[in-house]
Structure formats: structure tokens, C-alpha cells
Design a protein that fits this description.
2 helices; five-stranded mixed sheet; about 110 residues; alpha+beta
């Protein structure tokens, strides 16, 4: 464990150790962060999940800071990491390394 790793990061990477370098897809709800996705991707584990915008290591200016109208979405790209914010009643924040950015909606690579 390095000082920059959260307890969640250590737990998820430990549980995912059995599927490293196999090419499996891991769906995570509410606990995904940018460093976690990067770490899993280096071990050939595709990551997709919702996350909280204030989580440690999350992309800057992502989520609650972004202005999104109801029904629209915005994306940000960082290397091969895609951050998607979609607004229903509240913002839904998604990080993925296995999907292309959506083809519809409002896009912003700010």
C-alpha cells in the first residue's frame, strides 16, 4: 500500500487480484476513482462504475462542479479514461476505461 492509495483502492485491487491479466470487466458502484481505474487497467481489468466527484484522486472539475442541464451529459477524457456526467434529477458520475464516449448529448472536454 502506498500513501496515495485509499482503503477502498487497496480492498478492490486485492479482491480483483484473481482476475488480473484475464480481461474481465469489473463494475463498481459508488467507489470508483481515477487512480483505481488506472491501476486496474494496468492489470488488464476493465473498470466501469459510478463515483462521487469529491473522492480522492477524482478528475478535477468533474461532477457537481460541472454545469449540466437535466437530460444532458458531458464527458471529459484523460488518456483512455472517460468521465461522464449525466443529469437526471441529480448528477450521475461515471468513470470507464472500456467504453467509447457516448454519441449523443452535450459534450465538453473542458
Amino acid at each position: 500500500m502506498t500513501p496515495s492509495m485509499t482503503a477502498t483502492h487497496v480492498t478492490v485491487t486485492g479482491l480483483a487480484a484473481r482476475i488480473e491479466h484475464v480481461g474481465h470487466k469489473l463494475y463498481i458502484d459508488n467507489f470508483v476513482s481515477s487512480p483505481l481505474c488506472d491501476d486496474l487497467h494496468t492489470k488488464t481489468v476493465n473498470c466501469y462504475g459510478t463515483g462521487r466527484p469529491n473522492r480522492k484522486g477524482m478528475l478535477k472539475n468533474f461532477g457537481h462542479i460541472m454545469k449540466v442541464k437535466s437530460g444532458d451529459l458531458k464527458t471529459k477524457l484523460k488518456g483512455n479514461l472517460r468521465a461522464i456526467v449525466w443529469k437526471d434529477k441529480q448528477n450521475v458520475n461515471i468513470l470507464t476505461k472500456m467504453h467509447s464516449p457516448p454519441l449523443e448529448g452535450n459534450f465538453g472536454d473542458e
